[in-house]
Write a structure and sequence with these properties.
Blueprint: H1 2-10, H2 12-15, H3 25-54, H4 67-78, H5 87-113, H6 122-151, H7 170-186, H8 190-217, H9 228-246, H10 248-257, H11 268-279, H12 288-293
Length: 294
């Protein structure tokens, strides 16, 4: 009897059943390092994606004929460094966002799972992803506003239509946003961002379901580590799925955060209405190609 009690006392579930007992900081480190590395490599695609998203065809902003034309035009005007406009807030944003997201998601998932041999159902992955996503968005939204504005600073502004570059960098943009637009300015695009939380939730749900299906098909334990190739394929498939399904919110958010069209829209619903009226369904998918490639 005393031996069984000693074993129970040593088990993780009996030691601490609260959520703090499932904290693993390696998920935070993995998220930060993955977010920073991928952003440094793939930022040009993010820049081009944003420029496609905000172009409503009105002629107020530079237009590109496609991905290759966008790269050539930007390099011709600004050199290779032009493809890395806004990279600083993007690195900060993706590093902190993925670090916090991975950390919170895995803590919640471990807390809900408790029994490592029993995989969670899809809806629990969705709940964990949604909670982690809302918390992460609340912390990082100001960084995304700054990133969007720095990515949309054109070196050849059109008189009377576009302003000359007005931000010197990330810190300067944050300070000017706070002084000129206050807290509301720092949280532009937050509402569509909330809907965008489903992006991460769907991605992780699909990822976990792919892992579960793979383990079931090959009859291996759910907790067994897979190879890097398997993780890469599952991560890519789940990301493409989530990005395609939820993409329209990114267009709405970018247009709300764009410094050149701030007075053009009266909120997320107005963006949706005008985009559909003038550009149709296709307008909600501008920039999808560089987004999926990224």
């Amino acid at each position: 009897m005393s031996e069984r009690r000693a074993i129970a006392e040593r088990s993780p579930s009996s030691q601490d059943s609260s959520i703090t007992g499932f904290i693993r900081y390696e998920h935070l480190v993995a998220g930060i390092s993955g977010g920073v590395t991928s952003t440094l490599i793939l930022h040009p695609l993010d820049l081009i994606k944003i420029r496609f998203q905000v172009n409503d065809g009105s002629g107020r902003l530079p237009a590109y004929r496609g991905l290759v034309d966008a790269v050539q035009t930007i390099v011709r005007s600004n050199g290779i460094k032009g493809l890395y406009q806004g990279v600083t807030p993007n690195v900060w944003g993706n590093g902190s966002a993925w670090g916090l997201y991975f950390f919170c998601y895995n803590v919640l998932k471990a807390w809900m799972q408790k029994d490592n041999n029993k995989p969670l159902r899809a809806e629990k992955h969705l709940i964990a992803g949604a909670i982690a996503g809302i918390g992460t968005l609340t912390v990082t939204n100001p960084i995304w506003v700054v990133k969007t504005r720095l990515c949309l600073q054109y070196t050849d502004p059109q008189p009377g239509v576009m302003q000359a570059p007005q931000y010197k960098g990330m810190l300067d943009a944050l300070l000017k946003l706070w002084r000129q637009e206050g807290l509301r300015g720092l949280y532009k695009g937050y509402v569509p961002g909330i809907f965008g939380v489903s992006h991460g939730a769907l991605q992780f749900m699909a990822y976990e379901e792919l892992k579960k299906g793979y383990s079931w098909y090959f009859e291996i334990p759910i907790q067994q580590k897979l190879g890097s190739i398997q993780y890469l394929i599952m991560a890519s498939m789940s990301k493409i799925f989530a990005a395609t399904v939820t993409y329209p919110y990114q267009v709405v958010r970018s247009r709300l955060q764009n410094q050149y069209t701030m007075t053009q829209y009266n909120g997320a619903l107005d963006v949706i209405s005008k985009t559909f009226r003038y550009e149709g369904v296709r307008g909600f998918y501008k920039g999808l190609v560089p987004s999926v490639l990224r």
